[in-house]
Amino acid sequence: MGLKFFFTLGVCGALLQLGCTDATEGRYRIEIVNPLNEARSLETLEIDLAAIPFKNAIRASAKSYEIFDLATQNKVTSQAVDLDGDGSLDQLLFQPEVDAGESKLFEIIASEEKTIEEADPLCYSRFVPERTDDYAWENNRVAFRTYGPTAQKLKEDGVPGGTLSSGIDAWLKKVDYPIINKWYKKELETDGSYHEDTGEGLDNFHVGVSRGVGGIAVKRDSSYHVSKNFTSYETLTKGPIRTSFVLKYEDWKAGEDIIKEEKHISLDNGSNLSRFEIKVRGTDKLSVGLTMHENDGQVSVAQDKGYVSYWQPHEDSELGTAIVAEPKRIVEVEEYQNGRPDENNVYAGLSVQEGSVVYYAGFTWKESKQFANAKEWENYLEDFSKKIQFPLQVKYLK
C-alpha cells in the first residue's frame, strides 16, 4: 500500500480535550535550527512521529497531527503521511519560516478530529489512463509527465498515439493552481488543446527520445543507453506539501550490463525541482540528462555548487532546465551530440552509492514570471543546492 495524506477539519476539539503540554498527553515540542545566515522558507521538514514519546493509546487513536508556531501561536500548514500503508501515521511534513541563524519552537498536537482528503491538492500526481497511460505530477509552480507501457506498445506496433520514451516531459504552466486534470479534459473532451496557451500555459516542450528534464542514461564506451517506458506505478501521497510516487521499469541493457531501475519521485510545494531517488543495479555511475533541443542554448556548469543548467530560446520565449545534486556526487559533465534527432543532451554523471542516486531536476519558463533570465535562475539553483547541503535541523526536545 502507498502513503496516505490527511488533513484535520480543526484543532479546537483537540486543544480543549487535551489541555496539557507534554507528549504523554498528546502535545510535544520540537526545535528547528537554521545553520545558515539567511532566512529559510518553502523547505520541507520531515518530522518522525515515532521519535515523539506519545502514549501508545494516544498514538493509536490519533487520526491526524497538527503543528503550531509557538512564537505566533499560529497553526502551520502540514501534511501527515502513512509511510507503510498500515493505517498509522508515521511522518509529519511542514515548511517552517525561519530567520537567519534562528532557532524556533513548534508544538505538535495529536488530534482525534475527523480527517478529510483534499479534493484538489496543490501538490498532485496521478496515472492518466484516458490519455493512453501517462503519469503526471505538479505543484504550484511546475508540472511534469512521463509515459507508460501502453504508449510504448502503440509506438512499437506503429499505431498512432504511441510514445516510446523514458524522458521527463515539462508542462509549462504560468498559474499557481492545479492544471493537470483541467488540461487533460481540455485536450480529450473539448475542441481545445493543451498545446495552445489560453492563459494558463501549454505543453510545447518536445521530449521524444531525449532525456527531457532529468531522465537517466548509462554510458558505455562512447554511447548512452536508456530504458523504455515505465511498466508500473504506485501513487504514494498528494497534499499541500508534497506529492510522491514510484515508477518501475523492465530490466534493460547498457552494453553487456543488465540495468535494474526504479524511480522514486517527489515534488514539494514552492519548488521548481522534482526530487528523484533512483534505485539502480548494474552500474556504478548514472548519467542524468537535459535535452539540448536545437543546441541554441547556453550550458552553465557549477560543479562545486552542485548544479548543471541549460538556458535556451523556446519558441517566442525562453526556458531554463537544471539538475542539482550534492557536489561530491557529480563526477563528470558532458555535452553529448551525435547528430540524431532528440539525442543531444547535456549529462551530469553521478556516482551510485549503496544502490541509489539522489538528484533534483526541473525547469522554469520565462512566461511564468518566476525568473526573468538565466542569472536569476542560476541564483535560485545555487541557493537550492546550498540549502540541501546545509538543511534545517530538527531537535526532538525531552
Number of strands: 29
Which fold name fills CATH's third level, the topology of the largest domain? Beta-galactosidase, Chain A, domain 5
Find the structural class using helix and strand composition.
mainly beta
Please state the second-level CATH architecture of the largest domain. Answer: Distorted Sandwich
Whole-number tally of structural domains: 2
Q: Main beta sheet: strand number and arrangement?
A: 9 strands, antiparallel
The poorly predicted ranges are 1-20
The portion of residues assigned to helices is 10-25%
Q: What is the beta-strand fraction? A: 35-45%
- Our measurement of the CA-to-CA distance between the termini, rounded to an integer number of angstroms, reads 33 Å
Q: Average pLDDT across residues?
A: 92
The number of helical runs is 5
Outline type: globular
Radius of gyration: 22 Å
Query: Tell me, what is the CATH class of the largest domain?
Result: Mainly Beta
